[in-house]
Design a protein that fits this description.
This protein has 676 residues and is an alpha/beta fold. Strands 1, 2, 3, 4, 5, 6, 7, 8 and 9 form a nine-stranded mixed β-sheet that branches. Strands 10, 11, 12, 13, 14, 15, 16, 17 and 18 form a nine-stranded mixed β-sheet that branches. A two-stranded antiparallel sheet has the order 19-20. Helix 23 (530-560) runs antiparallel to helix 24 (566-589).
Length: 676
């Protein structure tokens, strides 16, 4: 009986020799065909394989993924039995003879699976409870059990080649769970036999697919179970996925605690210093005060005695960038100087909480499949940390989907949080350089280059991980680059360009107009106490509800009593509600405000006319298409119009007076004494 073994490999010099030896050392009453599919490795893999070219078939070509390599190898295979063994796994001695004997003994069996232990980089057995758990489940094979949980070890699974051909190869659709889909295909075609002996060793290490993508693997397995089974299968599988991920996270946590602190080998702060910045030393001190230490590097395209003095004082490496001074060039050069898996581009005038490195590296260990990690942040104005201002509240609202971990990998969720602005604070970002390949900031933008970079990264398959802790103080000052860009109009032009890229030209103009109304808070952010915010919130709720009641009541009265067409009645009621809303806002919500210039009032009217047109379309859709009762349709519409009305008045008509006394102001500025 002839058995074909395929090994896919790409840059696997570290373990490939052990894998090849474990296969070629197999002896017994069978003929062995060994095929190695190399994806054009750039390390010493091919040199090692050349030593075995007389005993195996070596194919070296670009394949793009392990699935393609395995499919190519299986297409060449001429054996009656097939399997694949990854370039870091091992066969136990005598495995292939046991497999051949089993297939001879059970001619009606199409595929078999056995036991497999888990080893680390040094061949030490690890995670024994996981092995025992899978061994127990192995006794209870059935397609129904398999749909509820994947307990079959890939390195210990073998099949007849006619079953493989009927299963139509491995699917390229999945990135980490293609083997599970194959098991379900084969379970439809033939019964399986469980061997109660150890056939292989599965290796877990930092660069293995299973180690870096285990959450993605289980998510894909859940999707496969849903596609192949029923709701009960999916529900049980979902519970098992939660259970397994929780156990794996616990095991990773235990393992990380038992390891010595090697954060210096994992993370680097790189500071792209520009000219003689007065806040640079303060920033460096915050980096040196981390509870978990990291490497710190200073790079600069504007060398000076001041920077040399700072670097010498703090015993830091200063690297000169010979490219022309430019934010994109400075940041790209900074990333190129890092030799650790993770890094943070620390902005020279910002400050970092002492737990920044600890919390970000903890997230990196839990979610290795992420491409960037970012945290919440606060503004730093006149050395006071401000956690609440309009721009920060808006950004946190944009990040609401990311409070659900399941959305971190979703391309839709990633694009959504970036579609209405950039809520990701660049100084807070920790870059996973293992996944961040061929990445660079472009010089198309001077201010929004980070927003543009995140938007491009959102289209990749890697996750964005949000760490919901306030770990960075981003300094705001009139002299800052962003503040200057707002004053000279460059920020507005770049915002328009980004919105056009995402939404198109027409919608972009509207978004930029709304955005420009908030620019003032980016230059002069104000801090509000919770008491003031609560009071304002009450005014908003009462004002909104009364406006909604007026709009609904007038419209319903005109339709029922005056028997006016509901569209006309809605228009009249909306105008009445505008007048009511204006006086409510003027004397209660924004009582210490002044109206803006006539042009802003005109803008408000244009917006309200657009809202009115939208309201008529919604009302027609509710009544004539959805066939909702008129009263229900009007109350839904009144609610929407009240929100739009108040939002437009807040952004366009009213603004705070700078000379209002603290005792009379509805929203006094509260000094925040907290420090980093």
């Amino acid at each position: 009986m002839k058995i074909s073994v395929v090994t896919p490999v790409y840059n696997g010099e570290k373990f490939i020799r052990q894998t090849v030896e474990s296969i070629l050392s197999q002896t017994g009453d069978f003929e062995l065909e060994y095929i190695v599919c190399d994806g054009k490795s750039t390390d010493n893999t091919l040199k090692i394989l050349e030593e075995y070219k007389d005993r195996c078939t070596i194919i070296s070509q670009k394949d793009g993924s392990p699935q393609v390599a395995i499919n190519n190898g299986m297409a060449m295979a001429t054996g009656e039995i097939g399997c694949w063994l990854n370039a870091d796994d091992l066969f136990e001695p005598g495995t292939l003879q046991k497999v051949v004997d089993t297939f001879k003994k059970y001619p009606n069996i199409g595929w078999i699976y056995g036991r497999c232990c888990i080893i680390d980089e040094k061949d030490r057995e690890i995670r024994k409870p996981v092995t025992w758990y899978k061994n127990i489940l192995g006794y209870f094979y059935s397609r129904n059990v398999l749909l509820c949980e994947n307990y079959i070890n890939q390195p210990a699974t073998f099949w007849r080649m006619d079953i493989w051909r009927k299963a139509n190869d491995l699917s390229p659709e999945y990135k980490a769970a293609w083997d599970y889909e194959l098991w379900l295909k084969m379970s439809k075609l033939s019964k399986a036999k469980h061997l109660r002996c150890y056939l292989s060793k599965f290796r877990r290490h930092d660069s293995s697919i299973s180690e870096n993508n285990f959450e993605k693997q289980f998510t894909e397995e859940l999707a496969i179970a849903k596609a192949n089974g029923n709701f009960i299968h999916w529900l049980i599988h979902k519970f098992n996925v939660w259970k397994i991920i929780s156990v794996y996270q616990l095991l990773n946590k235990i393992a990380s605690k038992s390891k010595p602190d090697d954060s210096l080998l994992k993370h680097t702060f790189v500071v792209p210093a520009f000219k003689d910045n007065q806040y640079l030393e303060e920033c460096i001190n915050s980096l040196k005060n981390q509870t978990i230490k990291s490497k710190i590097i200073i790079t600069t395209s504007t060398p000076s005695p001041f920077l040399k003095k700072i670097a010498h004082k703090h015993e830091l490496k200063l690297i000169e960038n010979h490219h022309p001074p430019c934010i994109a060039n400075d940041w790209n050069f900074a990333l190129s100087q890092v030799d650790t898996p993770y890094c943070t581009i620390a902005h020279q005038d910002d400050l970092y909480d002492s737990n920044y490195t600890a919390k970000m590296l903890h997230a990196a260990k839990r979610f290795p499949a992420s491409i960037i990690f970012f945290s919440d942040y606060s503004n730093l104005v006149d050395r006071k940390r401000q956690r609440y201002c309009i721009i920060l509240i808006v950004k946190r609202l944009l990040l609401l989907p990311f409070f659900l971990k399941n959305s971190w990998h979703s391309k839709t969720a990633k694009k959504f949080i970036l579609s209405l602005g950039c809520p990701i604070c660049c100084p807070s970002v920790l870059y996973n350089l293992k996944n961040l390949k061929d990445f660079h900031f472009t010089d198309d933008y001077q201010i929004n280059l980070d927003w543009n970079a995140w938007y491009k990264l959102s289209q990749q398959d890697y996750s964005f991980t949000f760490v919901p802790h306030n770990l960075v103080a981003h300094r705001i000052s009139p002299e800052a680059e962003t503040s200057q860009a707002i004053k000279n109009g460059q920020r507005k032009q770049e915002d328009l360009s980004m919105f056009q890229k995402i939404w198109g030209k027409t919608a972009a103009q509207l978004f930029v107009l709304l955005y420009s109304l908030c620019y003032h808070s980016s230059i002069h952010p104000t801090q509000k106490s919770f008491k003031v915010l609560f009071r304002e919130g009450c005014y908003y709720i009462v004002g909104g509800l009364t406006t909604m009641a007026v709009c609904f009541g007038v419209a319903l009265f005109l339709v029922k009593r005056a028997e006016i067409n509901y569209i006309i009645a809605n228009n009249i009621a909306t105008f009445v509600a505008w007048i009511w809303s204006y006086f409510i806002n003027k004397y209660f919500v924004f009582r210490n405000t002044e109206r803006k210039h006539l042009i802003q009032g005109s803008t408000f009217i244009v917006f309200q006319l657009c809202f009115l047109l939208l309201a008529n379309i919604i009302l027609y859709f509710e009544v004539d298409i959805l066939k909702l009762p008129l009263a229900a349709a009007l109350i839904i519409l009144a609610f929407l119009m009240a929100i739009l009305n108040f939002t437009a008045m807040k952004l366009i008509i009213f603004k705070k007076q700078n000379n209002v006394s603290k005792t009379n102001s509805l929203t006094p500025v509260v000094e925040n004494k907290s420090k980093i």
